[in-house]
Specification:
The structure holds 2 protein chains of 2 kinds.
Chain A: E1 10-14, E2 19-24, E3 32-38, E4 45-51, E5 56-58, E6 62-67, E7 72-77, E8 86-93, E9 104-105, E10 109-114
Parallel strand pairs in A: 1-10
Antiparallel strand pairs in A: 2-7, 3-4, 3-8, 5-6, 6-7, 8-9, 8-10
Chain B: E1 5-7, E2 10-13, E3 19-24, E4 31-37, E5 44-50, E6 53-57, E7 64-68, E8 74-78, E9 87-94, E10 103-104, E11 108-112
Parallel strand pairs in B: 2-11
Antiparallel strand pairs in B: 1-3, 3-8, 4-5, 4-9, 5-6, 7-8, 9-10, 9-11
The chains are: A mainly beta, B mainly beta.
Chain lengths: 115, 113
Amino acid sequence: GESVGLHLPTLSVQEGDNSIINCAYSNSASDYFIWYKQESGKGPQFIIDIRSNMDKRQGQRVTVLLNKTVKHLSLQIAATQPGDSAVYFCAENMLGGGATNKLIFGTGTLLAVQP
Amino acid sequence: DAGVTQSPTHLIKTRGQHVTLRCSPISGHKSVSWYQQVLGQGPQFIFQYYEKEERGRGNFPDRFSARQFPNYSSELNVNALLLGDSALYLCASSLEQGWGEQFFGPGTRLTVL
């Protein structure tokens, strides 16, 4: 199938290692952040989200860290598996009844897991 | 439960034609958003609809239009197709306006020749 990873930053890790994917977001008014995983030929899949009143949130094998001071977001994946190979996007949004659901996506990072 | 569904899966058109893409949100979700994803880039916001009204619009020309039906499904229409319209068109649904968590469908791959 086609690749969505052309010309994207690439992170190559060994199976079993931890992965850290970084993202810089653009709008200081954004208060909601999401990480998506996109496999080749598929739509983005929700991984984990975090609101601006938090600086860390953990899920199953994943952790998101938010640093509002420098507008930086990171996704940590523990014990990376071959099935984690995909393009990872961060996205930002603003919540609230008056806000749209417009997500602003980052450029994406291709995670390549070596067996 | 079924996720977001989109049709068709793939579509090939020629320049100048028009196209209609369809999306059915997750049951109970009232908001639908459309995104364009060019190969190698992140999705770009086109429209958001909530309760049949346009609630947000991205930086796309008037050739792009959309609508939402009473059952919350949605159509994206693109007129006078250009080669640069070739992309993966994604639909995302969420429970409410300004809710946050959005779920994406598999997309429609449009190729303009």
